[in-house]
Amino acid sequence: MVHTIRDKAKLLARVRRIHGQTAALETLLDSGTDCAGILQQIAAIRGAVNGLMVAVIEGHLTDHIVEEPELAQRQHDLELVLQVIKPYMK
């Protein structure tokens, strides 16, 4: 995927933030933090993962659907992204 190579640094930065957030969640759970703090951290992680998903989907749609000259390839790429989005949204 061209867009994941082009946006590699930005995407890896997001992944590293998510890693830090999950490590913080583990620390909260180990330390016996109240559930409100744990829930807040889980919500932050979910928001970060959703942001990562949006960034990758945006690149995919732009590179593989909008800018793809072949109709058959565009349809194939759209089907691929829909296969991922549908279960993710449940």
Describe the overall structure.
The model has no long low-confidence stretch (mean pLDDT 93). With 90 residues, the protein is an all-alpha fold. The protein contains four helices and no strands. It is elongated. α3 packs antiparallel against α4 (71-89).
Q: Would you count the extended β strands for me?
A: 0
Give helix and strand order, one letter per element, not per position: HHHH
Please tell me how large the radius of gyration is. 17 Å
Chain-averaged pLDDT:
93
Helical residue percent band: over 70%
How would you characterize the largest beta sheet? Answer: none
Uncertain residue segments:
none
Number of helices: 4
For the termini, the CA-CA separation is 26 Å
Q: Describe the global form.
A: elongated
Which structural class do the helices and strands define? mainly alpha
Portion of residues in beta strands equals under 5%
